[in-house]
Design brief:
Number of strands: 5
Number of helices: 6
Strand order of the largest sheet: 1-2-3-4-5
Structural class: alpha/beta
Strand content: 15-25%
Radius of gyration: 16 Å
CATH topology: Trna Endonuclease, Chain: A, domain 1
Distance between the termini: 20 Å
Helix content: 25-40%
Largest sheet: 5 strands, mixed
Amino acid sequence: MRRDTIFYQLFQQSPTLLFELLPQLPDRANEYVFEAIEVKETTFRLDGVFLPPTTNGIIYFCEVQFQLDELLYERINSEIGIYTYRNRERFANWQAVVIYPSRSIEQSNTDTVRELLASGRIQRVYLDELGEIETLPIGISLMVLTTLEGDVAKTEAKQQF
């Protein structure tokens, strides 16, 4: 299953879904615009960029990560560095959100990015820790459903929707 496509469609239809995963909404969250952006002249591809409504806002980078990548944070840091270098006039600050199905998929060695992680500049969301599907908002429950396999996913989907 291509989860990037599912999340792309979810975010395209409702950009505020990303912010429902965070403990604090940015100002004017409902005015953010979602785009999937490719950084030219490299092989880097950002899963999602949430552009602020004004140039003094925070830009949010989103990465949906459903497989182990031991260089994920280094790649994200590089992608963000290139993007901010080329688009600095579009925002005042940035934050990244990495969406995992569970902690078991997270990169094990984070020494090179420990300050970014400790600062909260990169926030991690573990879908399996958000609670029971039936208690979650519909968009978040759709995200959690992507973590379930086969018949379990079908049963949960039928019960919820």
